[in-house]
Amino acid sequence: MRLPSRRALIIAGLAVVTFVVLAVVGVVIAYPRVGRWMIEHKVIPKVEAKLGRRIHAGAIDVSRGHAVLRDVTVRGPADGDAPLAHVDRIDVDFDFWSSLRADPVVGAVTIDGVTIEVRRDAAGVDNVRDLIDRLGLGGASDGGGGGHAGMGRLKPTRIDLTHGTARAVDDVTGVVTTVADFDAVWQRGGRAVVRARHARATTSFGPAASVTELVAVDDPTTGRRVEASGGELQLWKNMSLTGITGTVEPAEAGRLAISFDGGWGGVEGKLWTFAGWVDPATSTGVLDLDAERFTLDRLRPVLERSAVVDYQDAAIDARLHLDVSAAAISFAGGFHVHDLSINHPLLAEKPVHDLDADGDVTGSYDRAARTLTLSRGDFSSRGLPFQITGWVALPGGLRPDGTRRERRALDGRLIIPPKPCQEVLDAIPAELKPYLEGFQLTGTFKTDLRLAIDWADLQATVLDGSVGIMKCKAKKAPDDVMRLAEPFEHYVEVEQDQWVSFMVGPENPDFVPITEVSPYLLNSLMTTEDSSFYKHHGFITREFKSALIKNLEAGYFKYGASSITMQLVKNVLLYREKTLARKFQELFLTWFVETKFDKDRLFEIYVNVIEYGPGIYGIGPAAWHYFGKHPRDLNPVEAAFFSSILPSPKQRYDQYCKGTLHGWTEGKIERILGLMYKRGRLTETEYQDALATPLIFAKDPDETEAECMARRKKAIKNARPTNPMKK
């Protein structure tokens, strides 16, 4: 066999080398486009199949052993408007030669600028549960297999994630969680570390939580561990657990052991502990919160900005035990507060001292129904025991019929067991009852009240029960109250701290006995102010519910349910401050004067002290000023006019000065007359005559409107900055 010539071999060799060089050059030239095609048509579809998500890359750049993907979006079927994830840039290292065989071996991956949006809608459908199942992340640590199973040679050797942000919206619980910045590292073999900074969770019903830094480690050898620092749990406004630090780490049988402690309101120190275990797989756990007794002076930086005063000797302790299941959270606990002092303008004019409170509670929170139930609430304050039970339901929870609640609802019950009336009165701090000092009571007091409100149906509101003060009797009362039995000097605050006084009794020529007052005026006042005055015991109980519903519909406290007796007490025995202390004393004194004085005496005082215009107090001066006649001679129209101006007589005085009525007042007078007729307080003839009778003021024709309006200033000028009755 003849061998090729040397020249032929050289030519053949050169041809092979040339082909190889051309092939290499071709690969180098074509590789980026081929690489992009491989990523778009081979790699991304494989990842999409694994994740069950659509993946779109805005740009793909491939070089030898390295690929860059930009503007990457990962979107699933339940994502809503925002995709599950958006990534600014992904850098992938891979083995060049294996990629030529269309079977690339991936090395390190760097993910930068990722935004994650997790959500669960009101029906309970979320956009990550199926992804967790696909990646095998629902169980315990897998030692490196879970999370990338089925990815084969596409599984990276390392993943670095930087500059991440995250947001989770849960429409079922009303919780929104945000993470301002996080990064993560995962290494083949299973070790993963996630660092989150400035994470915050808020709720639709008030409480919120935040953490400065959260470090989560998942290691095949040591297991999972989470460390938190700089945490804060805001229970409600101006009440927060702060400085929270602690750990979450593996325990037996798949459980995680939890141990946290922290301070209060930004105050450093270990004021409470929170420890126990949870099982993520079964959503169960047992947790205990304990705050051992400490004096409130440790919270000085917080309390200096609060209504709590003189807190050097005040002390508090609390405990709470939680049993967590997939369906509900059961709780039991208690608290003690000792020697607390509060100074708040809505509570009382002066600081309230020596407040003590103890409580023991048991209840549960139903996750699906989003309902908090207090099945046992035994409390005591200054020796007075009482019980509170009931439930509060939040929007979005399931009703028993399977529908979802759109508005919040509550149903509560208050019980004060039978106690001597004097013990109940003594349990109230002195600062809350300055006008009740000197009362001595006999009898037994008890209370059983129920309140139920569904904001989706306010007309179905329930307010019923009993307040057993009617079983109490006063064997002694202070002179300030008993003065109503005789002529007395009445003080009126015409402006803040500016007072005038006048006698209520026969020695005052302006005083008018009730027998000398037109029955039309008395009937008109009862029509507008208190229709059942002569039938009730001081309280229009049916109006309490009506006023409550109107206030709930308005969104604020706009309407009251004051009887004539309550107005009398407020104007004669108490003063203008709008505090809970004043309201409590108003209720107590209303009960007392109703038991001590007859209705005619109360009505007589009322018509002789109320304001009918600037500096015009009592029906005697009012009848002469407006109509030039004695109160006995007032006709139905004039009586209805007085009723129409009572809510704000100073503001409505301009009608007298102008000599004409506002259109609103004319309509109001007609409505009052109509009600008087409907309720049998006017005959048919009287009603028809009243409709045909014009209202004519007895006004000095030489007085100008400006001079008339100056009465207000004259009334203030005659006032003095003293009131010996005010306490």
Structure description:
The chain has 727 residues and is of the alpha+beta class. Among the domains are: 1-221, no CATH class; 483-727, Biosynthetic peptidoglycan transglycosylase-like (Penicillin binding protein transpeptidase fold, Orthogonal Bundle). The chain is 27% helix and 38% strand. The protein has 18 helices and 26 strands. Strand 20 (440-454) and strand 21 (462-467) form a beta hairpin. Helix 9 crosses helix 10 (580-596) and helix 9 (564-572) crosses helix 11 (599-609). The radius of gyration is 40 Å and the shape is elongated. The N and C termini lie far apart (135 Å). The model is unreliable at 5-30 and 139-152 (pLDDT under 50).
